[in-house]
Design goal:
Strand content of chain B: under 5%
InterPro entries (chain A): MetI-like, MetI-like_sf
Radius of gyration of chain B: 22 Å
Distance between the termini of chain C: 39 Å
Bound molecules: adenosine-5'-diphosphate, magnesium ion
Number of helices of chain C: 7
Largest interface: A-B, 60 and 55 residues
Keywords (chain A): Cell membrane, Membrane, Transmembrane, Transmembrane helix, Transport
Radius of gyration of chain C: 18 Å
CATH topology of the largest domain in chain B: MetI-like fold
Largest sheet of chain C: 6 strands, mixed
Order of helices and strands of chain C: EEEHEEEHHHEHEHEEH
GO cellular component, one term (chain A): plasma membrane
Chains: A mainly alpha (253), B mainly alpha (251), C alpha/beta (268)
Structural class of chain B: mainly alpha
Pfam families (chain A): BPD_transp_1
Order of helices and strands of chain B: EEHHHHHHHHHHH
Oligomer: heterotrimer
Helix content of chain B: over 70%
Number of strands of chain B: 2
Largest sheet of chain B: 2 strands, antiparallel
Shape of chain B: globular
Strand order of the largest sheet of chain C: 6-7-8-3-9-10
Helix content of chain C: 25-40%
Distance between the termini of chain B: 36 Å
Number of strands of chain C: 10
Family (chain A): Belongs to the binding-protein-dependent transport system permease family.
CATH architecture of the largest domain in chain B: Orthogonal Bundle
């Protein structure tokens, strides 16, 4: 059974990459290289090191932006979740941000902060922060009341309830909010490299497009998607490992 | 929040933020933030202009077409994945990849394959919205009570009838949940498409106003866009709550 | 838990001479327009088990949480060991209907959690917790997590946690309602031996008439609308007859019938 799932995954990958290869050979479009050509381009970029240089550049705004979002987002989320007043005051902003296409702010950010790192960090932040804030605050709000009462009945002080009950109880949901935030951060980082100034992976994509080196372009896109998916999977594995069994055990079953 | 026994409505704090915006604007603290009142005056001035109407229709067309494909493809695929184990195992890894992948990276591919026009923007919109719709539909179908399926089979329902009369309705709460998130993502997709692929619709307006330093025009369009996005998301949330009554009732 | 055959828990109970551990004087509580408790007065004798019995919605949980200091009452007084109380205190410990265990903590940490919050050093509190984990029959599960335990075992953890802080009043809110019938019976026996051995005052909320009659030294029968103490019943069951025989005793059946007659009008 274990094997079946694995075989099917491999089969599924073979089917998709095979279809890609065939479509590239027909070719469906002059701008559609085969899978093997793209992988060859990826291997070439890996061996000459250019892909690593590019990622060093791309990861800069991503890492800085996600770090800021995590720090501020969790802080804001806790604050909003704990205080009805701040909930009333700040929640609507993040709810609107979550629903709105914030990419529209990019022209303004560029005007205000130029085309450098600051703007890119901003793009990553506005993309990733709302979901982190909203999941943190709703996790805090949904801490089981009986656990808080239990701590109170054993004379816990307010800070102890926060540190020993609310934060541990909210962590799984905060963590999955973080995962969504990172995913949105990747979208923002690539968007800013394509829209603001071509640097890093965005530069490989834009440049190879302009010289019609399509295998390199597809290779770069392929690599960033793989990187994002691997990283998010890693986060998910960490999450499952850290919080296994956590969402069971409150309930009375 | 409750003040003096009176419960303040949920989004009412936006008024305070609006007031703060007005004050910051009036003090002239920064060029980028004109007073909110000025933004609203501009808003009413531009809302009937041909340029605005054109941007709105272009955006609405791309958005509606993109959402249509996301729903029309996403729901059936989700139902098939929920019903067929083989299909599920073949497709699920890909759906899971694309639901969280940085789809912006795919936009350049769409540009070279489908040109710099409407087609690429629509596909971008669909790509942003479809994956979560598939995932939620699949989850909804998988939780359908076995006896409901056996019931429809025992009454001799055809495969088609089973899909349209049982699976769809039994999974409706989850499907709507997926559609709501999918549509919110599609709104983001259409704007990203307009900014990256071809500068049309609202994307063009933003570029135009920003490059001409027309700040109150910029904010006016932004407010319209945010308000539209927010209304769409609230409306779908409302629909979802309307059907969730029977989500609680089924077993 | 010490599983010795239950002795008569109240062979020496003389309620009039017994001192009172917890006393409720004219307590009222409203939730907005809902009158949850109205001018309620009740005494809980020390060392005995008093049940609060009544249909759901009659304010049992509200009363218990007010005694625990988890809810504020609108008027009246709560007197515990002769002192007026307004908040939680070290002399009372609560056992929750839904267990309220920390899912991220082991059995050991859960049981020691009350002591942890009181600032007891780690080794000391773990020694103590160890003792109560053994006492409730969970030896060997110290490092298990709540989701690895059955409902009955989880409630034993909740019970051990309440016992370990050595409060002299134990408040139990329908502690057995989420465990299966067999476990529940075992629990009832264990509870009786606790009452006999621990010299603590138990206030026990239940909606099961049989359970109340079987376990209690006294039963406060609460009725809703308006919430009030309808009747105080002292079952005086001779428990030396043994668990299996008590349900066949005429006195037991009479009391059950009598309570059912009072309640039946309210459960339609
Ligand atoms: N937090 C609350 N807000 C409003 N009404 C409540 C609340 N808690 C309990 N009540 C009401 O108070 C009454 C007593 O409730 P409770 O003490 O939980 O009863 P019991 O435990 O006997 O079932 C019920 O009518 C219930 O609806
Ligand atoms: Mg209750």
């Amino acid at each position: 059974m274990q094997n079946r799932a694995l075989y099917l995954k491999v089969l599924s990958a073979l089917l998709v990459f095979g279809a890609w290869e065939i479509a590239g050979r027909i070719p469906v479009s002059y701008a559609f290289p085969t899978f093997l050509e793209s992988m060859a381009a990826l291997a070439r970029m890996t061996f000459d090191g250019s892909i690593f240089v590019a990622y060093a550049e791309t990861l800069k705004p991503l890492v800085v932006g996600v770090a800021i979002s995590t720090f501020l987002g969790i802080g804001f989320g806790l604050w909003i979740g704990l205080s009805a007043r701040f909930d009333w005051l700040f929640s609507p902003i993040f709810i609107v941000m979550q629903a709105a296409p914030l990419a529209a702010l990019i022209p303004l950010l560029v005007m205000a902060y130029g085309i450098g790192l600051t703007s890119k960090v901003f793009v990553v932040c506005i993309m990733s922060m709302p979901v982190i804030v909203l999941s943190t605050s709703s996790a805090v709000r949904n801490t089981p009341a009986s656990m808080k009462e239990m701590a109170k009945s054993f004379l816990a002080k307010d800070y102890e309830i926060l540190l020993k009950i609310i934060i541990p109880a909210a962590s799984p949901m905060i963590f999955s909010g973080l995962r969504l935030g990172v995913s949105a951060g990747f979208i923002g980082a690539i968007l800013s490299e394509l829209k603001i100034t071509p640097t890093g992976v965005g530069d490989i994509i834009s440049y190879s497009r302009s010289i019609a080196d399509y295998p390199s372009m597809y290779a770069a896109i392929f690599s960033i998607i793989v990187l994002a998916v691997l990283f998010l999977n890693l986060l998910e594995k960490t999450e499952n490992y850290l919080f296994k069994g956590n969402d069971r055990g409150y309930v009375t079953d | 929040m409750v003040i003096m026994g009176y419960k303040l409505p949920n989004m009412s704090s936006l008024l305070i933020w609006g007031l703060l915006w007005e004050i910051i604007g009036q003090t002239g603290l920064t060029f980028f933030v004109p007073p909110l009142s000025e933004v609203f005056v501009t808003l009413f001035k531009i809302i009937g202009t041909p340029a605005f109407v054109k941007a709105l229709t272009e955006t609405a067309q791309a958005f509606l077409a993109g959402v249509f494909f996301a729903i029309a493809i996403g729901i059936p695929v989700g139902i098939f994945m929920g019903r067929s184990r083989l299909l599920d195992e073949l497709l699920l890894p890909w759906v899971n990849i694309f639901v969280s992948a940085p789809l912006t990276a795919l936009v350049p591919v769409l540009m070279v394959l489908f040109g710099f026009g409407m087609k690429s923007i629509i596909i971008t919109t669909t790509l942003f919205g479809i994956w979560i719709i598939i995932l939620n539909t699949r989850a909804g179908v998988r939780q359908i009570n076995r006896s409901l399926i056996e019931m429809s089979r025992s009454f001799g329902a055809s495969q088609f009838d089973a899909f349209t009369k049982v699976y769809f309705w039994a999974a409706l709460p989850e499907i709507l949940g997926g559609v709501r998130i999918g549509v919110i993502r599609a709104v983001k997709g259409v704007i990203i498409g307009q900014l990256l692929i071809s500068i049309v619709g609202f994307g063009a307006l933003f570029e135009l106003y920003a490059s001409n330093f027309l700040m109150s025009h910029f904010w006016a369009v932004l407010i319209v866009l945010f308000a539209l996005a927010f209304s769409i998301s609230e409306f779908l949330g409302y629909l979802e709550r309307r059907v969730s009554y029977y989500a609680a009732n089924r077993s | 838990m010490v599983m010795s055959q239950t002795e008569s828990a109240f062979a020496n109970a003389h309620p009039t001479e017994q001192d009172i551990a917890v006393s409720i004087r004219g307590v009222s509580k409203n939730y907005g327009a809902v009158e949850a408790l109205k001018d309620m007065s009740l005494d809980f004798p020390r060392g005995q088990l008093t049940s609060l019995l009544g249909p759901s919605g009659c304010g049992k949980t509200t009363l218990l949480k007010i005694i625990a200091g988890l809810l504020k009452h609108d008027s009246g007084e709560i007197i515990v060991n002769g002192k007026n109380v307004t908040g939680p205190g070290p002399n009372r410990a609560f056992v929750f209907q839904d267990f309220a265990l920390l899912p991220w903590a082991t059995v050991m940490r859960n049981v020691a959690f009350g002591l942890e919050l009181r600032g007891v050093p780690r080794s000391e509190r773990e020694d103590k917790a160890e003792k109560y984990i053994k006492g409730v029959g969970l030896a060997g599960f110290e490092n298990a997590y709540p989701h690895e335990l059955s409902g009955g075992m989880r409630q034993r953890v909740g019970l051990a946690r309440a016992l370990s802080v050595d409060a002299n009043v134990l408040l139990l809110d329908e502690p057995f309602s989420a465990v299966d019938e067999q476990t529940r019976r075992k629990f009832q026996e264990d509870l009786l031996s606790l009452v006999a051995n621990e010299k603590k005052t138990f206030i026990f909320v239940t909606h099961s008439i049989e359970e109340a009659v079987y376990c209690s030294d006294q039963i406060a029968l609460l009725l809703p609308r308006p919430s009030r103490v309808h009747e105080m019943i002292r079952p005086q069951i001779d428990r030396s007859k043994g668990v299996d025989n008590i349900p066949r005793e005429p006195e037991y059946l009479d009391i059950v019938d009598q309570i059912w007659a009072s309640l039946r009008a309210y459960v339609e």
